[in-house]
Amino acid sequence: MSFGGPEVCHTKQERLTMSESLQSAIKEICEVVGNDRTQMMEIVEQVQDRFGCVSSEAMDLIAQQMNCHRVEVMSVVSFYSFLSEKPKGTVVIRLCNDVIDLMKGANHAADAFRDELGIEFGETTPDGKITLEWTPCIGMSDQAPAALINDEVVTYLGSDGARNIARQLKEGTAPSKLVGRLGDGNNANDLVKSMVHNNIRNAGPVVFAEGIVKGDGLKKALAMSPREVINDVKNSRLRGRGGAGFPTGMKWDFTRQADGDKKYIFCNADEGEPGTFKDRVILTEKPDLMFEGMTIGGYAIGADEGILYLRGEYAYLRAFLDDVLANRRDAGLLGKNICGKGFDFDIRIVMGAGAYICGEETALLSSAEGMRGDPKNRPPFPAQKGYRDCPTAVNNVETFCKVTRILEKGPGWFSEIGSEGSAGTKLLSISGDCHKPGVYEVPFGIKLREVMDLCGAEDVQAVQIGGPSGRLVGKDSMDDQICYDHLATGGSLMVFSRKRNLLKKVLNFMEFFEEESCGYCTPCRVGNVLLRKKIEAIVNGEGEPADLEYLQTLGETVKTCSRCGLGQTSPNPVLTSLESFRDVYEAALKPALKDGSQPEFDIRAALRPAEAIAGRASSHFAE
What we know:
- By secondary structure, the chain is of the alpha/beta class.
- The chain is 42% helix and 13% strand.
- Strand 2 and strand 3 form a beta hairpin.
- Helix 18 packs antiparallel against helix 19.
- The chain is globular, with a radius of gyration of 26 Å.
- The relative contact order is 0.09.
- The N terminus is likely disordered.
């Protein structure tokens, strides 16, 4: 095994020394986590960080140390995009290729990287120093194009900037030294030091309100019984802010009543839906609000442990978040005997490693248990049998922030905000063809037209509501309300002006779902490929009228027959665009012949290669 890169050779003694070093390091890493099989993600991530990969030898040693099968280790390493069995460069450049980044010029940055580094995407420079890769959305659509260079985020990346970065990296500059300016708020914190900007465009009365006092919501919760806390959350009409909108109080009630002495609270911070970045801003500016909501949730359901599952793309915030947790412990708001009320509860962070499917709650739990992020069959639901087979409540970042404010201000205050069927505010991540991309906290019930005015969107052709798994809507929906009963969204709004080719956007979304499918079930694994191929044919001018019915039928089949939420929503880019923009599809189909029929086969084109070989035209099918 060569840890120095693909071109480095080592003597037998050097290889032996490295093998001993690897064995010693793995023994140390495993023992730190108590040789706990469920900590497999932490183990392989640390091995990857130290040695640049999780080699075949490393997998053997981990399996031996953890007393598990090698295939269990390999299944984890092969599943996550940030892990690798083969060595990568000391520096890995991951350039984002989601639809917004491509709209904003990611391909120009890509060309500059290729030219300056002399390699293609998926390759490593001959000296083994720099690897160049594409990656899906990294939560920076409001400041695209963007890239991750190791854990450092680079935003607003043009071709000149990419070329300059490549030159510095070749000269040996550390990725952390590439940050020439710091972003606003806690992005400038010594534990973050990131160039990321928050872009909070509209600060609402709940999450981004002024004057919130740390601990107020928790203290009021601890003065109540757990049942009273759950009732307050129910009476507030709070629904989960992850997109599905399941009532939070009901989920907590189910978890509290479930059989089992040990219960868990999970915060889903795997914000992987392309075009979504609101949780990034909460994690940066309002982590106390989130952690306090988790603590209140732990008290309500009877848990003594909470886990924040943080996506790998937000690793640059890890040290800062750990420090926030430490400060809460010092303040008596976390740990033993919280606020002197005899309630014990603590929170730890589990890191993801680049897998969109882990945003699905059962896949997230599988990942946190040290396995592939494969979704689990339901029932049983996590509230009955979740993390480590214990009752588990999983909510997202925004939901926990709302819980804290509800306990602080009362359920009546919260329920009066918003619309009849959707209480409170919603954080929107808005990007694309608008003058003011960023995060907006708005009351539920606001019309889409009003949101477009807020963000400075002009000449709007379409808006993708809720990310690729949501709905693509046009001008007929501008007076619809953003709420659970009309335009439901987990937070993402992507704006497309009339200059954009919508079918190319649909194609980009389907390429994303094809890549991110875990491959467990056939409808999703195969169906998304077939959908993508047909959309690609239509974009290339090879579509026929019958293809539209084919797309409709296939899309509905994939939705109906897929095992988890990814496959059940992945056809939405096709199905919703067919519903709202059928004329765009029809305009892209092959032109009909004079008699109105559609050309099925071009015999002349098929014969040209043979005619070139024979040196003459066909005598049977002459022009």
